[in-house]
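We emphasize that the prediction below concerns an isolated chain of 152 residues; any contacts that depend on oligomerization or on bound cofactors are therefore not represented. The input was used exactly as deposited, without trimming of termini.
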Amino acid sequence: MQDFLVDLIMPKETILKKVLVWRAKYISHRQFVYILSIVVGFTSGVGAVILKNLTHFFQHILEGNLVKYYHHAFYFLFPILGLTIVYFIMKYIIRNKVSHGIPSTLYAISKRKGIMKQYQMFGSILTAPLTVGFGGSVGLEGPTVATPLEIY
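Result of the prediction step, given as a token string:
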């Protein structure tokens, strides 16, 4: 029965099909859930590290030698500049509205079987560090929550 479902869902000779057939033969459902838990935990950690390091990178650029002696005067302009950059990224690169991390994740889990749009992850990874690194008043927790779900 499982082979019939695999053939119905996926074309012949795909890597995913081979992995699913191998999993059905050699790994129990509980072991598979454990393996997926490890993968999700690892990707969550990698996503959090990427978000944090990008944020610190943008902050270091702004407070570094670029405006070393004048950066106190620019603290008012940095958030406006960051939000302007985020606006143009959303309008011309992502071309979709990037919603908030935790509410969109909860909605996807409750209504869409955990499936989220792929641009959400890339939008969160691009826009959140820019906003926070330039001094915007948001956090990185929401994008960090949304990142591992969207990889799959």
